[in-house]
Design brief:
The complex is a heterodimer of chains A (about 500) and B (about 140). Helix content of chain A is about 75%, strand content about 0%. With about 500 residues, chain A is mostly helical. Chain B has helices at about 5-25, 35-55, 55-60, 65-85, 110-140. Chain B has about 140 residues and is an all-alpha fold. Chain B has one domain (about 5-140). Classes of the chains: A mainly alpha (about 500), B mainly alpha (about 140).
Chain lengths: ~500, ~140
């Protein structure tokens, strides 16, 4: 039953592909929606039962591929389904390409790939499905008509594939040392060894590159900000969660080395602060949100590094909802006003979008009735260095104070598409709804102190003229940039290998 | 892009044999070395040889763009459907056709069907990719 959740979107993707040469263009749109929404049925049948797992084709666990549906992936799948359902509605009015079917097929492949990666409990199968999702996302990023989008997609492709090759190499090492690809069998049968440690080091470094966490983040802001708006929401919301799910599975299976845990903790905190610092300097609305993805991925990595899996899972779920919502609602403004510059964008005339952007900003800042508050509270369990954690929360609020400050200044009033507005607002209310469901109590004192501190800090930074600093691109050519960043990845990989082997 | 008479005659002579070999590999894939992917690549090579020797425009008349696309779509769809039919018998990808003695041609259940589907899909996809690339080259 579980594999059907992957098969249904795949089936409709191929049906759309077949409908084109035989000239049935008008059934494409209903098929697309059917493909996006059909996994909900399987999900609703499965969701009541706990700890489901099955081996595809009825084989034994040694020779087959295991898929599972339990606590560790149910929130990933739920976030995936919510985000894809809303984004599919959004993209129907957004894409007006001549060959819009291409976009639909690629989105369905991405849907199938992500669901497949999230249900899989087999390393190689996980890798294959993650690749299906990534390959479709390169193509979808490159579809954007914006200047520089092709370059961003190319950079994304190179680094994502580099990460994949190293990841599949580490899977090979694990297979060599244990004889299994199934995570449960690996967990029961492995003996700790230096080779296995090295394999884990390579796997974690490559997944860090694939997720875009701080020292290896370089492809992420460009790709996520230059992609078409619904695709940005998907990339930032859920595609970057697939590598994090892999890290979660590895951390659940293997006892992590002390050095690896410390290094991941350091990377997590530096990613949180680096993302915020860079976001504060951006004047491009989508790039600001993209840098916040770098920062929020640091939070999720923090949960994995401290072995606080509940925190990591809940924050991944929360981040998928509010970051998807933010990209969609800011993107709606960008579509209508045809600019990405924060100084020209405004939501002054549009009270509904104003409300939804404010709600989502509070959610990402961790203010209490929203889901961000609950997931951040979960992340705090068993964490040393709480002060830094609170500081990062205030930093996030400062940069969203900046976003809202610039959006509040009046500008040209352009009417935006009503379906797009409705979808963005729905996501804002979903974050509120899940927040109330998980954590109904308010913590007014803490939150008001946080917001006050953030507003004061924002005012001080604005007076100091921080927001007038302009960042310039340092690299002349794309090739040189890629070489430089590959060297950074190689150095980090070498460091991990030397310490772990 | 037209190559010399020798090359054109040789490729015309070789291509049918390659197709036969591909058909053998896809049908006997579960018994002997080979299988769907290899069969598909050889199937595509037989067309690609003709494209490189005779030029894209000539080959396009016999192997139409839309036909290749349809074959690819149908084979991909049949793969997913074949896997999904297994759900009614005991699980996704369940081998629901039993019978045949060990080593016989019909002993594989749904495995030969999958091999044929994969071979057609891979062959059509490779041909399609080559069409796209040579269309780009021959445009100018």
């Amino acid at each position: 039953m579980i594999p059907l959740i992957v098969a249904l979107p795949l089936l409709t993707a191929f049906l759309i592909y077949l409908a084109l040469p035989i000239g049935l263009r008008r059934i494409v749109k209903p098929l697309f929606l059917a493909g996006i929404f059909s996994p909900w049925f399987i999900f609703l049948i499965l969701v009541g039962k706990s700890h489901l797992s099955e081996v595809v084709g009825g084989w034994s666990r040694v020779s087959g591929i295991e898929v599972a549906f339990d606590f560790y992936n149910v929130y990933f799948i739920l976030a995936e389904l919510i985000l894809f359902s809303l984004v599919s509605l959004y993209s129907i009015t957004y894409f007006k390409h001549r060959s819009v079917e291409k976009v639909y097929v690629l989105m369905l492949l991405m849907h199938a790939g992500l669901l497949g990666a999230f249900v899989s409990r087999d390393l190689f199968n996980y890798y294959i499905y993650m690749e299906i999702a990534s390959v479709s996302s390169f193509a979808l990023t490159g579809l954007s008509e914006e200047k520089g989008a092709k370059g961003a997609a190319f950079k994304y492709l190179i680094f994502s594939l580099l990460a994949s090759y190293f990841f599949v190499f580490s899977i090979g090492l694990i297979y060599l040392k244990t004889g299994y690809l199934n995570l449960k069998l690996i967990g029961e049968n492995f003996t700790p060894s230096r080779e296995l440690n090295a394999a884990l080091g390579i796997a974690f470094t490559s997944l860090l590159l694939k997720a875009g966490i701080f020292p290896l983040h370089f492809w992420l802001p460009d790709a996520h900000s230059k992609a078409p708006t619904p695709i940005s929401a998907l990339l930032s919301g859920i595609v970057v969660k697939a590598p994090l799910y892999g890290m979660l599975m590895l951390a659940l299976t293997f006892p992590l080395d002390e050095f690896l845990k410390k290094a991941l903790l350091l990377i997590a905190f530096s990613s949180m602060f680096f993302g915020i610092a860079m976001a504060l300097l951006q004047m491009d609305a989508k790039k600001l949100l993209a840098y916040h993805t770098v920062s929020q991925l640091g939070y999720i990595l923090l949960g994995i590094a401290t072995l606080n899996f509940y925190g990591a899972i809940y924050h991944a779920f929360a981040h998928a909802l509010f970051k998807g919502g933010l990209f969609l609602s800011v993107g709606t403004l960008i579509n209508a006003q045809k600019t990405k510059n924060l100084k020209e964008l405004t939501y002054r005339h549009d009270k509904i979008l104003m409300m939804s952007i404010l709600m989502l900003s509070l959610a990402i800042g961790g203010i209490s009735p929203f889901i961000g508050a609950f997931s951040k509270k979960q992340l705090l369990n068993g964490l040393v260095g709480c002060e830094l954690f609170y500081l990062a929360g205030i930093g996030t609020l400062v940069s969203f104070a900046k976003l809202n400050y610039y959006l509040l200044t009046p500008g040209k009033a352009e009417r935006s598409d009503s379906l797009q507005r409705a979808v963005s607002t729905t996501l804002a209310f979903i974050t509120l709804g899940f927040g109330i469901y998980f954590l109904p109590e308010l913590s007014l004192k803490n939150d008001s102190l946080n917001i006050l501190a953030a507003l004061i800090l924002f005012y001080v930074l604005k007076k100091m003229g921080l927001f007038r600093i302009k960042m310039k691109a340092k690299f002349g050519k794309l090739g040189r940039e890629i070489n430089f960043y590959s060297a950074v990845f190689a150095l980090l990989l070498l460091l991990f290998l030397l310490k772990l082997f | 892009m037209r190559m010399s008479l020798v090359v054109r005659t040789t490729t015309k002579f070789i291509s049918p044999f390659l197709v036969t070999y591909a058909a053998y590999l896809m049908v006997y894939g579960h018994l002997s070395p080979g299988g769907g992917f290899q069969a598909g690549v050889i199937l595509a090579v037989s067309v690609i040889l003709l494209i490189t020797s005779h030029g894209y425009k000539r080959v396009k008349k016999s192997f139409r763009f839309r036909e290749v696309q349809t074959i690819e779509g149908i084979s991909a769809l049949s793969l997913v459907l074949l896997a999904t039919v297994g759900v009614f018998f005991g699980g996704f990808f369940y081998n629901f056709i039993r019978g045949g003695s060990f080593g016989a041609l019909v002993s594989g259940g749904i495995v030969p069907l999958f091999n044929i589907g994969v071979a057609l899909k891979v062959g059509a996809a490779f041909t399609f990719m080559f069409y796209m690339l040579s269309r780009w080259v021959e445009r100018d």
